[in-house]
Every structure is written in structure tokens, then in C-alpha cells.
Amino acid sequence: MGECLLEISQLGKTFGKHKVLHNVNLKVAKGEVFGFLGPNGAGKTTLIRVVLGLIRPDCGSILINGFNLQTNFRRAIEHVGAVVETPKFYPQLTAYQNLLLVKNLHRSLHKNRIGEVLELTGLIARAHDKVGTFSLGMKQRLGIARALLNYPKIIFLDEPMNGLDPQGIIEVRSLIHHLRQQGITLFITSHLLHEVEQVCDRIAIIKNGTIIAQGNLTDLLRSDCEVVEIYTKDILETYNALAGVAFVHKCTINQSSLLVELDKGSTEHLIPFLVRRNLHLQYVILRKYSLEDFFMQLASKEGNL
Ligand SMILES: Nc1ncnc2c1ncn2[C@@H]1O[C@H](COP(=O)(O)OP(=O)(O)OP(=O)(O)O)[C@@H](O)[C@H]1O
Ligand SMILES: [Mg+2]
Q1: Which residue in 21, 56, 98, 190 has its CB near the most CB atoms, within 10 A?
Q2: Domains of the chain
Q3: Nearest to residue 264, comparing CAs of 239, 235, 227?
Q4: Ligand 1 centroid to 40 CA: how many Å?
Q5: Looking at ligand 1, which atom is closest to the CA of residue 16?
């Protein structure tokens, strides 16, 4: 892991008697896209609120860019941007006017910065349209534009793709890639595992306030077996032929195919093995071990996630 931009140590938070965060330890490196996952009510938004200084933790420490949030709040929060849940704007004002209101709160910012962030988020052509006419995806991007005003080094995005249509999801995804290229570190919560897999470098999974997995996505998804899907008209015969084969771990019949889990690298032996038995193969497709598979495996170990 490279230089650390956010370091959370032994963080705890209780609401009444309810322990919402328990001994949370997290490190986010400069320049990476970090995915923070977990089921509803696991504590994701609470963690973001604590890191933004909106609620006080009971214990633990938070360092942002080397500054302690509790003892040096101003310096720690100076280069932080965030979009927590659905961003709110004045619908009767234009995108530009909405951002101008925020810019005026920061004396050091120049007006030109508004144009820059609208350009970055692909909204420059709509700068002078009322926000009331914007789609949810455009409001989400305007939220990100607002978070970018203050030249943040790290941006927290809480469920940035929630409620967006496929086009909106694609736009936010490419914006995340674009911000990453600009050297901005991103901390994202999301339930959309397929999206997380496409944009994140590292992830952590939280359940009932406790981190149950954390690491580099490539390492977490590295597996010692591979899975292939076989399409054949001889489903039962193929299933029976695979029973007891040493390199096959598991075989399941799907509606119109077979799902075979086998030793890594042994697909090349599987195909000639089946052909020699005169089984008619239509397609053999290698299935990538996905974040969803990882999540399901973890869920079966940990009880429902
Ligand atoms: N201000 C509060 N007072 C009391 N309980 C709270 C408060 N904020 C959150 N909680 C509780 O803390 C737990 C974690 O909530 P949080 O919003 O952090 O979950 P989340 O992981 O963001 O869930 P989701 O995926 O639904 O957004 C929930 O049980 C919630 O009811
Ligand atoms: Mg939440």
C-alpha cells in the first residue's frame, strides 16, 4: 500500500445502547478508489459522518492527510469533499448559481473554479439551466461538482449510483475513473457489487459495525479454483461423466447448462476428457470469480450478510 491519506484506528460509536461501529481499523492510500461495502444498517453512512466530523466517535482516532481530526479539525477537513446520500439543491436556481452560493462561503476560491468543476463533471453545457429540470444522475454529478469546489484530496461518495438508470450509472462510473486519473482519492459506499468491482482498487466489508474483510480487490478475488459453464444437449450424461473426476470439485445443473468448479488451469483437460466420451459440447465458458461470489462465500461463512 502506498502513502496513507486516511487512517482510522480503533474507532467505536454507540447510539444509546446500540453499538454501530466497533473497533474499526481502515487505511486508504493516496490515489486509490476504496469501496466500503456492507448490508443495510451495517454502519457505512455512520462511518462517513464520523470521518466528516458530523458526529463524534466514542473512541478511536482518525487521521486525514496526516492531521488528526479530533485535535486539528481545520487542517484535517480542509481537503475533504463529500456527497452523503442524495445531494440537495435549490431547484429554482441554476447549477451555476447553486455552486456560486457554496463558492461564496470559501473566500479563497475564485469564480473560475465553478466552470472548472462543471466541466470536470460534464455539466458545463447545462450550467445555466435550473436544477429543478435535472435528472437524478445530473444532480448526483452536480453533488460531486460541489464536493470538488474546494480542491479536495479525498472525496466520500455515499451510494453514488443509488436510483440511477443504466445511463446515469455509466456516467458516474466514468466520472469516478476520471477523478481517479486526476489523482483524487475516492471513498465509495455501494450495494452494486458489479460496479464496485469495476471502479475500486481496494475494499472493506462491514457487518454489524465490524470490518469482516479488507484488502486489495485482485488479491481478494484470487482463487485456487476456476469455474466453467458448459452448454450441452447431453446435460445428464456430462454430469454423470464428471462424477468422481479428480480435478472436478463440484458440478451443478443449471436450467440449460452445467456449472463446474475445478482445479485452476484444468479446463484444458476437461474439454478433451468430455470430447473423448463423445459428449456434444456447444459452449464452454470460463466464469470469472466475481466480487458477488466472494460476497456470497463470505455470507455463507459469516451467516447472512
Ligand atoms: N442518529 C442516529 N441515532 C440512532 N441510531 C442511528 C443513527 N444513525 C444511524 N443509526 C443506526 O445505526 C445503524 C447503522 O446505520 P447506517 O446509516 O450507518 O447504515 P448503512 O450501512 O449506511 O446502511 P444503508 O446501506 O441502509 O445506507 C442503523 O442501525 C441505524 O439505525
Ligand atoms: Mg447508508
Answers
A1: 21
A2: 4-217 (3.40.50.300), 225-288 (3.30.70.100)
A3: 227
A4: 8
A5: 4
